[in-house]
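FW: tagging you since you asked about this chain on Friday. Here's the raw sequence from the shared folder, copied in full. Didn't touch anything.
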Amino acid sequence: MSATRLALSLVLASVALSSCSSRVGGGGAASCAAVIEYRGHTYWGSGPLKRDPATTGRLVAGVIPACDDSGGQQPEEPEEQVEVAELADVPLDTAFTWNGGIFVRDGRDLPAATRLWFHAPLCRRDAEFDLTADWLGVTGAEQPRFDGDLRPPYRLEVHVTQGPEEYVGTTVLVHADAATQPGLGPRDVKSSLWQGGQVTARVECVDGRFHAIALDVPEGT
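HL: got it, structure written out here
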């Protein structure tokens, strides 16, 4: 994936999108907007998603337009053909999904029922349970050091792939503190977080939050 395409994906995961001309980065260079064209219409990224929407399984061809996000310092990124997925509950002439984000046609609105897609579930179980998830990122008082040292307290942003049914397919924050044993060490950070791997968590619900009792990185991730 090119730097521009990766940046587009990260934008979707962090903020609601605006146009290329209004997004300015360091040195005054504009960043490429998260936009895909389909059948001559412009679809804007709308995120971040917290719950996986149902899809029909049908894929159609879209185009990421060419863009220069370097202020002329580097060659323009060429347009890129992509396959986007049809949503089960929203017609293609309104929206579709690609690369973990929802793209909405210019001038159209998502139905009110889709608002749930953008809200993470609360932790509501009485007993402890296990989650396996794709590791998306980490935040805390101190960011991971260059050597992977991660010190509590911190929050892991994860996309749940295994666990209680109500949480599978959702993106949640798992909170770790000094009581989380074992926690994650430099080797886990470098082998999993930096490589887009997985993490397993023994979790308890505390005031609606996912509190990690124990964390581990599965073998081979």
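FW: The two ends are 20 Å apart (CA to CA).
HL: agreed, and Residues 1-11, 13-30 have pLDDT under 50 and may be disordered.
FW: great, closing this out.
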